[in-house]
Amino acid sequence: MTSIAIIGTGFGGLGAAIELKQAGYDDVTIFERADDVGGVWRENTYPGAACDVPSPYYSFSFEPNPRWPRRFSPQPAILDYLRDVTAKYDLKRHIRFNTSVSGADYDESTRRWTVHTSGGDVEADVVISAVGQLSRPSWPNIKGRETFEGASFHSALWDHSVDLTGKRVAVIGTGASAIQFVPEIQPQVAKLSLFQRTPPYIVPRPDTEFSPLHHRVFSALPVTQLTERLAWFGVTETMGVAFLYSKPLAKALTALSRRHMRKQVPDPELRAKLWPSYPVGCKRILFSSNYLPALTEPNVEVITDGISEITATGVRTNDGMLHEVDVIIYGTGFTASDFLAPLQIRGVGGQDLREQWTDGARAYLGMSVPDFPNFFIMYGPNTNLGSGSIVTMLESQASYIRKAIDHARDAGPISVRADVAEEFDRDTQGRLSGSVWSMCSSWYRNASGRVAANWPGTVTEYRLRTARFNEKDYEVA
User: Fold this and answer.
1) What is the CATH number of the domain that holds 161?
2) Deepest in the core among 114, 166, 183, 312, taking most CB within 10 A?
3) Could you tell me which residues come within 8 angstroms of residue 375 by beta carbon, excluding any fewer than 6 positions away?
4) Are residues 279 and 402 in the same domain?
């Protein structure tokens, strides 16, 4: 019997486990560092936390949820969905909660992996990492950050014990999390100082509440929810084409964002601060209908001067001004380019995967690395999307990995051939070098400028590329 270890219980880990169980693999152990499933949807509890992809599309295709509360459902609803999926597919008995993983070593003599966990070592024939790209908060390297005497925390580690009512609050960062929590906290605070380095493109968020009637219709006529899913698939694929191939479509998206901003920000001076100077799609387009209006309120100040230091009482900018505040909230994203960290994965000959990736992570189809037999990655390098639902990519990966394990079960431990992986990486980076993502600094790129996060095509192309497992691309260890 093939034993399989999965690290993480977000969409990736749960999706892989379901795929494997449905194919008859039952010796599956899932390691989860926390006491509940959910990944980022368990960890991120900031006010207004929600997905910027419509819920009928941001969910498993085989497990539609007719009872989503909204089109863009909030974090608690997404977490409940993952809990329900865990229960329905009998995954809980496979999960070791409160068990962190530090790494894994491949033993060439036994052709098995030893997974190092806080509960002891565990041997497995196959290891699947599903730790994701957005699991470790990124803290800015600002002088004096530790000297601040007030409350401070990262948006991904929201401190709910801090009452923001009547406080002077600094928000550092204007990414996807900030545009959700800023409108929520703005009415509570005495003053909100928003420190913006790079403004995002923002388009209207066509959100709506799903009423009991919607729920009844979705339950009685599943095709109605499927239609919405397919419609959003079409919209996001079109946006992906705009980013990669079509300048006219990109211009149309730019015009939509500009019209949205002109409508919601009457002040031309503030509008100038908030309008991006880079091509649309270079950073992820954000959906919001309440972020820009919040910035026009009298208790909000948008600050575009760079930060020189943080003091005991506030934030000092490069112009020498000290902005005194009571609370600092870091909306500075995640260490997305530091793949698999802090795991230490050693393959054939004790090769350390992090050392192989010193100039940027790379993997064949984002899932397989030469000389790391029977080791697979969910949501690995170059599988993120500039537009669309990552859940669709994860489903494709789960299916592909299951087929790879089917082959390995009969042939022995397999790893992708080095020449196949190199050719794939060369082609991928060649396509990305001319893409919009190479034109600005973002979490899509690492420090050396390599676009290590994003897939250079559409979801449709990826699904076609991963639909069939070609055993000729792999070699037996």
Assistant:
1) 3.50.50.60
2) 183
3) 104, 106, 113, 126, 127, 128, 129, 345, 347, 368, 369, 415
4) no
